[in-house]
Specification:
Elements: H1 5-8, H2 15-24, H3 28-37, H4 51-62, H5 67-76
């Protein structure tokens, strides 16, 4: 679960999303948001308090992730194999 925003900045510092973002000319946060937006059972509620932030969110919505991008995210963030509680902030 990513929240507060983008998992308190952890996804923006992740090397996988950094690499994807560099390949596509967007920020790591936009790359992460692009991935979330393409998940069938997930909902993204991106915050946009400034025009640049709104443009970044728009770029994420327009980004077409490649099969290589999706495979990299799947390899980096494997699904849990057991139940575990969500951390609270």
């Amino acid at each position: 679960m990513a929240y507060s925003p983008i998992d308190q900045g952890a996804l923006a510092r992740d090397a996988t999303f950094d690499s994807i973002g560099r390949r596509h000319g967007v920020s790591p946060s936009a790359a992460a948001l692009a991935w979330v937006l393409r998940q069938p059972d997930m909902l993204a509620i991106p915050k946009a308090v400034s025009a640049p932030h709104l443009r970044e969110n728009y770029a994420a919505a327009q980004l077409e992730l490649t099969a290589e991008d999706l495979a990299a995210v799947d390899a980096r963030f494997t699904p849990p194999t057991r139940k575990r509680p969500l951390g609270m902030i």
